């Protein structure tokens, strides 16, 4: 990864190399932490963070779900992210921001009430999550053997560190089998989401994406739905089966890091023409116009640094 100069840690800016934790930190052992993934883009007017408040609010809400008490307000954490981007003096077009909270040193039992909550924000330059070529030509998806854990035993709506064990196993399996990304079903056999992105498909001109019954309430998914509706595309939020996916005309993934990544193949079935679809391309270029500050209608989603 590309190191930056500073990391914000518990209210202070510390040198990148000094942002350390004890090996007996509670979260390293039991996995209760929460993360965000936010992005800043270099616009003509300098860096702008996309939907900053929505991301920070989701971090605080994830923490509430997993019983972590972050001692900073949304406003304080928003301000820290703005300052972090300024202080690091980035140069590239894409900066990824990772605000997170975890349990530190001092308690070794599973019961975590008295373990100290540590809050940190890092930012670094990070390009296309699924590769530049994938953004143009599309990627290969595998419906993997693991499903998203059922809602009876998991909190999929929390962007919780612990949820990423499932994502990690899924992604590993997909790549090991020669694919680029994993698509996970829910425990009922319907499409839930990818390992770190939401799923969309197009059938007969209609854009379809599953409800967030067993997936993260994604900010990019909401943005794409809003964009599509404003473009006059019909959007349906409904359960999608494996068979629906195989005969889709187009498919793509969305996420802060994945942005809009076309899908060209799923489980050995070519999707549509086996390349980036027409609606996918339209949405992809509209999305980049928005995040790079070239569309005034969406200006309210940008926080200039
Ligand atoms: N699902 C999962 C599991 C994710 O990790 C992400 C990335 N944060 C997403 C969906 C997409 O969410 P967002 O659009 O808010 O980045």
Model description:
- With 305 residues, the chain is an alpha+beta fold.
- It folds into two domains: 6-125, D-amino Acid Aminotransferase, Chain A, domain 1 (2-Layer Sandwich); 132-291, Alpha-Beta Barrel (D-amino Acid Aminotransferase, Chain A, domain 2), CATH 3.20.10.10.
- Helices cover 28% and strands 29% of the residues.
- It is built from eight helices and 17 strands.
- The strands form two sheets. Strands 8, 9, 10, 11, 12, 13, 14, 15 and 16 form a nine-stranded mixed beta sheet that branches. Strands 1, 2, 3, 4, 5, 6, 7 and 17 form an eight-stranded antiparallel beta sheet that branches.
- Helix 6 links the parallel strand 12 and strand 13 (235-237).
- The longest helix has 15 residues, at 74-88.
- The model has no long low-confidence stretch (mean pLDDT 97).
- Bound molecules: 4'-deoxy-4'-aminopyridoxal-5'-phosphate.
- The site of 4'-deoxy-4'-aminopyridoxal-5'-phosphate has 14 residues, from helix 6.
Give the arrangement of secondary structure elements.
Layout: E1 6-9, E2 12-15, H1 26-30, E3 33-35, E4 38-43, E5 46-50, H2 52-65, H3 74-88, E6 94-103, E7 117-125, H4 132-137, E8 139-143, H5 164-176, E9 181-185, E10 191-194, E11 198-203, E12 206-209, H6 219-230, E13 235-237, H7 242-246, E14 250-255, E15 259-266, E16 269-270, H8 278-291, E17 302-304
Parallel strand pairs: 8-9, 8-15, 12-13
Antiparallel strand pairs: 1-2, 1-7, 3-6, 4-5, 4-6, 5-17, 6-7, 9-10, 11-12, 11-14, 14-15, 15-16
The protein binds 4'-deoxy-4'-aminopyridoxal-5'-phosphate (PMP).
4'-deoxy-4'-aminopyridoxal-5'-phosphate binds at residues 37, 167, 193, 196-198, 215-216, 218-221, 255-256.
